[in-house]
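Lab notebook: predicted structure, single chain.

Context: the supervisor wants predicted structures on file for every construct in the current expression panel, including those that have not yet been purified. This is the next one on the list. No modifications to the sequence; it matches the entry in the shared construct table.
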Amino acid sequence: MPAYEAQGTAEELVGCLNSNQPNHNGTYWSAAMADEPPYLKPSPVFAAMLPATPPVVVPSGLPSRDACQAPHLRACTSNPHRTSAQSSGKSLVLYPVNVLRNYARLMARTPLVGLIDVDLIISDSLAAEMNDPAKAAPYVAAAAEAAKAYSEGRHGPKYSTGYSRIASVESIAEPLGVKPVEKGGRPAYVLPAFVTRGGSISAQIARADKVVQQGKSRLLEHYQKKKIVRFDPGSSGHRPTDYTAWFRSAEPYPVQWQERYEPWVFVDRLGSSWADARFRGYGKNKIVHVRTLAYEGYDLVVHPRAFLVHRPHMESSSSSAHSRSALYNKKSKNSTMYGHNNHLYKMIQREMAHGNYSVHLDPATAACRGKLSWWRL
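Prediction complete. Output recorded below exactly as produced.
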């Protein structure tokens, strides 16, 4: 079996993160509204840095209380496994979700990383493919090419794909003559996502746990009976994946980024887009991250066999707070995180149209991606 992982330790990561914190020691509402980075000194970090047999891991940043909602983390052994960064506080509106995602990603040492939420179960079909060196080889080679393209400057707005520079800002983009390129040249592999329907929560959990082991044909049976449906069926957030085409497909197929499209993907580790550290709590953080991938030149390619199934759980505190803000229409820039995140997204849309958006990173992530031994290109 090829050795996919670069050498590295959790101690090296913790030392780097702790020595590159911002010059303040708290997180306040006024600081969050000013988009100042949080003081987030990991002490300790839970690092599930298990030996990675496959060439992809799934970094996860989650609050400690949410770990109990993810008993399916058997993925740490049989599936492409997860590394985790945990915080000790409750997941409230100021929770620095994207900073924690980036910290967790810094732990990864494989050629590929999965940008996948912790409450999603990965189908065993992906593990089977990635654990076969011959089948994994094309993904590893593509990751190396993508990292090379990044190091050579072949990324950014002139390589933007889909409607990442156009959607919702047509009045800005059209006079500028912005047009999407047909192909950016770096693949981001989309994993179609599903949710369970019908029956008790325990029955839905059991169905989710089982179908990821049974594969696509059994998933189709549940889908036809509406026992499992596409993720977020009432929204356009996953519609471009084209689930009808996916069930018929035996080969990867390309899709275009469109407004609100927010699939889960796996990409090369070294050159792919980071999560914008200004986003906290719940709302818009993943849409922006996926849009940034397209903006920086990634081609969205749907994997024909692997998939994700959401494992039911109680609503997170940040999601609940987000919902209350939306319900009471508290959308102003500085009154709620809901309003602030929406303001950030609109600003980023305009910057993408003009081609001058760049991801905002906290000081520790910005420093450590260049200092850690396994992150040097």
